[in-house]
TrEMBL record:
The keyword 4Fe-4S does not apply. Its cofactor is pyridoxal 5'-phosphate. Residues 6-208 form the Aminotransferase class I/classII large domain. Keywords: Aminotransferase, Pyridoxal phosphate, Transferase. One of its GO terms (biological process) is alpha-amino acid metabolic process. InterPro entries: Aminotransferase_I/II_large, Class-I_PLP-dep_aminotransf, PyrdxlP-dep_Trfase, PyrdxlP-dep_Trfase_major, PyrdxlP-dep_Trfase_small. It comes from the Bacteria. It holds the Pfam family Aminotran_1_2. GO terms for molecular function: pyridoxal phosphate binding; transaminase activity. This is Aminotransferase. The keyword Transferase applies.
Amino acid sequence: AERRHALLELAARYTLPIVEDDPYGELRYSGEAAPLLAALDIARFGAPRHVLYLSTFSKLLVPGLRVGWAVAPEPLLRRMVQVKQGLDLHTSSLAQAIAYEACRDGLLQRQIPRIRGVYQARRDAMLGALEQYMPAGTRWTKPDGGMFLWITLPESYNTTELLARALDRQVAFVPGGAFHANGGGANTMRLNFSFSTPEQIVAGVQRLAEVFRDALA
């Protein structure tokens, strides 16, 4: 929280915009949530001034519901509407109506605790499988929320080169190099735990571990 207050202070001092992209904020399974920068911004100035807050219904209701929302200073919102209209006129009216009814009816608030429980079980299954099967020297994050784990393999591995072998075993991941602007991260990868069942996750991690062990054989 202190770092967020300090960041907002810097934004106010130097008139800098902050983009707070928060698609996973409601998906927290442990730990204490940090205050939203947008909330701190509004609390201090009485209205959005330095923070553009972005989120989406696709991670909370259904993935195919491509509807998001923004909280921002009014002049910026007007420009965003103009740009949106120039790009594709507007988001699907049906999708917007579904999102509206989900909020009005209370479906969204009932859905959030449910998916938290589902995703937490899947996260825990992946953490347990990594502990059981991954090669020695492998490290991974233990996130309090979200949908992903970040894996760091020993330096001798290249996950981009190993992706094809994993796909042959019906397992997929995102090579970590795509997340490194400086060309690093060859031995890293991102795993998603939100889609598969705990049983599928355990089987998938076991297959991945076999791919990695075979690469050194």
